[in-house]
Batch of 3 targets.
Target 1
Amino acid sequence: MEQEFWINEHHEGAFPTIAVGGEIDVATAPQLRECLHRTIAQGNATIVLDLLEVSFLDSTALGVLVGALKRCRELGGELHIVVTDPRIMKIFEITGLTKVFPIADSLASAGVSS
Amino acid sequence: MTDLDAADALRVGDRVELRFPARGDLVVLARLVTSAISARAGFDIEELEDLRLAVGELCLLAMGGGGDRHGDLSLEFSVSGEAIDVSCTLAGAAGVGRAPGDEVSEADRLGEQILSALVDEYGREQDDGSSRSWLRKQRRGHGA
């Protein structure tokens, strides 16, 4: 069943954290893009993206993440992904993005205190 | 096979059609229908999840990058033996093509990677008036 999409931004630890829930697809990815770009434009080169509550993502969502990663790296930073759902991990794996993004299985291991 | 009553199962030759306006926010309809049909065609939960993702990508492929398009998307699901075939057609697709921008090109590339990893065959055809993408997925243990 489709789960409602939501974004929650908070700042704890060294980096801003953007938590997302529900389905990130062609319809909702623009909201995530806007949030990521705004956070980067505020001078945050490194961001933690919490996908622990995400139930689905498609290629549009991945394109947004890759675009944001490039922006972060241009500024000398990083886009850390936090994910544990095997279905979501599988999408990162089959697209080779596990080798591109730093991926952690908890906020603590991504460098954010829980 | 998922836990469905035998009376609910789709049989060889059964076809299901779905048509909706070619809007990104409605691609979820294709995914929902894919879940229902895959379960009734005997695919297990993991295959069902693969098909749900793949059919969403199929819609994006037909829409040429995922933005809203004029016209309707028509999906046809056909159960044939140990496989399911899904065809997605965007009629009246003049001007369909990848929108400019690195992010969209990257998403298109990733979409094709997802399809090639999750289904046995897929493709896309375009002519003056329409764009059609298709896939075929065998049930586990029946692949080529």
Target 2
Amino acid sequence: MIPALAHVGKNPERRPQRRRSLARRTADVVGRAIADLLQNEDHARASGLLQSLDPRVRLATVLVMAVTVSFLHTLPTLALTIIATMVLASASRVSVASFARRVWTTAGFFAVLLSAPAATGWISPGYELLGHGALSITAPGVLVASRLILRVVAGAGIGMLVVWTMRWSDLLGALTALRVPDVIVATLAMTQQQIVSLMRTVENIHLARESRMLATGSTAENRQWVVGRMAFVASKSLKTADEIYDAMLARGFSGHWPTLRRMRMSGRDVLWLAGLVAGCALVLGADRLIAK
Amino acid sequence: MHIPDGYLGPQTYMALDAAIIPIWGVAAAKVKKTLRSKQVPLMALGAAFSFVIMMFNVPVVGGSTGHAVGATLIAILLGPWAAVISVSIALITQALLFGDGGITAIGANCFNMGVVMPFVGYYLYRLIAGDTASTGRKVVASGIASYVAIVAAAILAGVEFGIQPLIAHTASGAPLYAPYPLKVAVTAMASEHALFFGWVEAFATMGVVAALAKQDSALLEMKPASKSMRWVWAAFAALVLLTPIGALAEGTAWGEWGTDQFQSELHMAVPAGLEKLSGLWSAAIPDYAPSFIQNPLAGYLVAAIIGSAVVIAATWGIAKLLARKRDDADTTHPSAA
């Protein structure tokens, strides 16, 4: 098998005994990011609940939910929000298992790690549940840590709803409709395309090195090679910008960014928004009652 | 350093979201003035570059790797205002496309990495590199600037985390968001960036600047930000004048205890080695309090002025020395250039 293509396919050949080289590790990370992008686009094309809403309403939904979560103080309401994000994911044809795995293995895992010291008597002194002294697990500490973990997981779940149910073109359309300056929207649109292009370049650079390597090389050699490739990508980016600008001028670019997309909110969208705001107000009210 | 949702309370993230909007407005106006309609592809490519540079694993020591943010590098290549837009768009894209960084924390992340890093990095680079044509001095300047810039942004993120228990807590005092006090949060953020990520940032920036100087030195021509450096010095002087605020804080930073405080803070005996070495060096101005000034706030201010002057002089001297060595090496081995 050609080494450069070893990572392609569902069951790539692996050599578990040997540590992967730096080039292979970076190529894998970039390859996974490209695959994630394509997979997210597939999810966003599905005919689910959130996908059927007007993009502006979808954007408002996640913003309202994210802000509401930041105002919640009690564990039951935070847990309820997590369940709500999973229900929304399921109704939007996103696998709940993949959704939960993604949220917990990224944000959830780090939240657990970061909040662990807060559960001890060192940060949160109080009634000791386990152990004694600064390293004991205390009741107020467990409450503080649990609150942080649930809040972070709820926030990450809401973020993933945007990532998995919103096509990039829909997001740009929503931003345009919300009167975000067209220069920003146009830059965002071009950025997404250039990110994919540059990621492919970076992946190919690393795969090319992997295919030519006989030994892993020293840290200093690898570092020199990596920063050299970074310089190449920087130089290529700036030169590509000049070429793109010339191509835009050749096609009659005059500094304005007209959009062809016309968005119309249906009665269903308005109903959804009203229900969402009412639901969030209810959760906030319940939160304050429980806190008392 | 990407802050996810949940760590910052509404008082903090809303203030930073509100602060970043006018900064983007000024940045867009400045960039339009300097780059005109060419700005969009250039900033988009800058943002895409900022995004992918974070995917390069830079080897540091002992097989460990880290990734750079690249904000100082982009500020050197495009100018600080264009870097504000490029890095901010890269961060927004990361949050919305990959779920990396929180939605409510977009303002905080863009402020820390998209404003503080490019500006601190750019002006420090400009201060050290000046108008030199020397590659060595530019490389050294870029390394120092990017290191200081990422540590400054990390300290700011630490402050944002650390003020949460003070401004958002329950009636019993339990924190509602990031739970660690200021001294723990700032120490943790500053130390991990000063000891590890700062070096990754410096290695990456220096390497790219050195390689670009060989491949296409025109890319390193200084991009305009303002007509003079006077306001940078004015801002620096204002910061020095504000230092007495630090004297208002109670206690000692976590982990910076003397032998007397060690016992009271950790409730353990002072290790023999620490006790033995504690008297090895007596500082010229202990506790930022010059002996010849009685007023503690005035003493703090004078200590800040003396310290700043020493740091600037030392940085300047080291940069000149390293640049001269590198230029001598280039002259001796012209084939290397």
Target 3
Amino acid sequence: MAKVKIATDWLAGCAGCHMSLLDIDERIVKLLESVEFTSSPITDLKHPPEEGVTVGILEGAISNTRNIEAAKRLRERCQILIAVGDCATFGGIVAMRNLVGTDQALKRAYLDAESVCNGVIPDSPELGKPLDTVTGVDKIVKVDLFIPGCPPRPGAFFYALTELLAGRTPVVIPDELFTYD
Amino acid sequence: MADVNITINGQPVGVPAGTTVLKAARQAGIYIPTLCDHPALIPVGACRMCVVEIRGQRNLQTACTFPVSEGMEIQTESPRVVSARKLVLDMLFSERNHFCMYCEASGDCELQSLGYRYGVDHWVYPTYTKPFPLDATHKHILMEHNRCILCWRCMRACSDLVANHTLGLRERGADTMIHADANLRWGESSCISCGTCLQVCPTGAIFERRCAFMGRDAQSEHIKSTCSQCSVGCGIEIVTRGGNVLRIRGDWEGAVNGGLLCKLGRFDPLQDDRRRITRPLLRRKGRLEPVSWKEAIQAAAKRIGGTAGAEIGVLASSHSTNEALYLLDNLFRRQLQVTNAGLLNRVAMKHIGRQEGSLSDIGGADIILVAGADPVNDQPVSSFLVKRAVDRGARLIVISDEDNGLAPFAYMNIGTAEIDKAIEIAGRAERPVVIYGPWIDGNMADALKKLRNSASFIALEPGVNTRAAAAIGLNNGFDPSGVKFLYILLGEQKWADESILGKIGKKTFIVVQAAFESSLTERADLVLPAAIWSEREGSLTNTEGRIQKVARAVDPVGEAKPDWEIISLLADKLGRKLGSSFDEVSSSAARAINERRNRHGKG
């Protein structure tokens, strides 16, 4: 049987969810007998293959226009999309920005911060344009499974992937793996 | 009341008529989730989490407010109920800021645990981005409006339990805000810092400044004890982590307070910035030097051995445990024939009632007389009970020539000369209660005695364990003249009796058993480091005569020892056997205190 293809990507996040994914430790060896990790921010191949994958995993919130592009791209190229971590499911730490407003947050970070001299707010065309409101991934694309947690427990990744491999659709991950922080 | 037979999830349950569905379910061991409900508060049905399906009722009903009736069939987890609860949760999470990962209450939050229970793994509705202010103006309590779910628990605690009515609501719908007084900053409001609100808050909206982010309930230990700040004797829970006291909470099962605490009991003990004494100190060549316990006790014993009983003076603080007071009395008054022994705070009062009342009588009173006492400042939790009774319609008469904290709540404020007026009114009442304190004089006592047959008399003792000290016999006057050896059991009490030192000869050898440095310990010749309220085991006698345990929640700092243990060491050194174990001392002390109480009760 061909291996199930998985692609991951991160949006406005801290990489912590990917670290937690790696923290499933030696179980990943077993997992790799059945799955193939195609693209991810921590492998050479960064973009999900055009021919598509079965499972897409997204970390991070929707914070700028690039995040929207990346989320839509993975959604188009995968059959099952999993939002992982509090940022992807709720907005998380990134959404704290909503409480002060994007302009204020940029000003504070790039102009007013105590460590800044001659500060400028970055506006290179290569960068995404910050959005007014930070949201979870599901406000932009359809999400099939949510795994909250900051970061999600490694076991939650393992549970979700093994359930999918067994042909079952995890609706909500079990209590002991379900956490908001 | 007659039993009503109902079924909950098909299980037959029999409960008294008038019971709410929620209470009936709890009695049957069936869980119904709640947020606004709290066992100590009157249910209001604000949050809608506890909705249940009742056969024959068109709509879902809130279990916390709905009374049972014969034959009722209730479903607590039907699909309709579960979907309604999920809707409620989704709506609650959509308002304000409920990101757990940077919330103080994460791990202890009731909203969070329901999110887990009902699998809220994303937010259905757009998130709310309007920020609310954080009110950090209060010295002890932070109000983070962004975490508030408007369950009104804080407001109800402030009104129903403490009767202070500081917290209230303004605006309507999603704009509703909890506020202090007429939207004042909390720190500038009429708040009396009892902290009951932070004890009932289900989320991270109201939390304690001092211990914020220092440990969740599950990571900390909860040790039941008794507050040792006044004579009411409230049950407390000392919450510790890693050998440090994080916070003090009222014990909901506390016999006297039922969960309530005041500023004196909840916050002040943890704000004490006096310097602790951590080692025994002995004066040598004019200077206090650290010595071992063995040397210290030896020095004290040697001095006592060389001094006649008539030249020894003893002063005790009412902050001491029953055990320490009992041992002190036994060692000095009985064994060493010392007669010059007194209390450091105002001496205990003469009881005037025939039958002693208890603080719980206040709730049922129709007339309350307060004479010679200022409970708002001295025994605050007892004043909550009075204010609560006033809210329910009891008439309060404050008899005082001074300012009194209860005066604003009184139906009548009169001077002590007009006491007969109050007696006349109380004489016509059905359930009068007289609350009296140490400032009543002979005339007032005589006047109040006229109510002996009808009223419940509640004495509010000054100090902390004054009642035990008096019962044991440490309530005689103290005469500083001619004292050559003075033993002061100061404990953690603030040293405020400067005048005594002036009256004592320069050559008097002073031994002080104290927890904190003060001008007294500077003058002393021997300082014995004492453990404080959180570091000692023992018992205290409250103003009603109730003997309650205090527990050691953390180890004493440095080489400090519990008050009773120090006196035991000294007695052993002097070759006086006062009891072989703590338990024996404790039960002897309780017996001595109760004997006196019984004698008093008959008088």
